[in-house]
TrEMBL record:
The keyword Protein transport does not apply. This is Urease accessory protein UreE. The lineage of its organism: Bacteria, Bacillati, Cyanobacteriota, Cyanophyceae, Thermostichales. SMART domains: UreE_N. InterPro entries: UreE (IPR012406), UreE_C_dom (IPR007864), UreE_N (IPR004029), UreE_N_sf (IPR036118). Transmembrane segments: none annotated. Belongs to the UreE family. It holds the Pfam family UreE_N. Keywords: Chaperone, Cytoplasm, Nickel. Residues 17-84 form the UreE urease accessory N-terminal domain.
Amino acid sequence: MAEEPNTPSTAAKDPPVITVLQLLDEPPGGIPLSLEVVTLTWHDRQRSRQRLVSDRGTELRLMLPRGTHLRDGDLLYADAQRQIRVKAQAEPVLLIQPENVMQMGQVLHQMGNWHRPAQISPQGQILLLADDPLRDWLAHMGIPFQSVLHAFEPNLLAHSH
């Protein structure tokens, strides 16, 4: 059978999709030739099964064990030429600065009731994902806070009953 004129004899192939089945340990050796990142919000870092595209266009398919939570810096893929890592995206959060232990207890008690994850700093600041009901409650209680963009990495995770 003859080829059609002006038809390429070989079709351009799409690059393969990388399937990620588990997080990797740090590879031995030096700095890779190329570092790629997938930038994800807190909610996206909780999804163990999803399709992603790195900042350089590499497609990945996450098929991690259920319950896997991605953290900033996690290594998803590595070979001799490149590494692909997770980057925590800065997102709207409320930076709460309780003035005393009573306010700290009130905030954490309420966040537990609302089943909200929280990030607490060694300086006693609390970071929570921003939303209007939380802003309203904090203002009503007179607890100082400010809206900021920051990567959210909770160290206190809420759970369902």
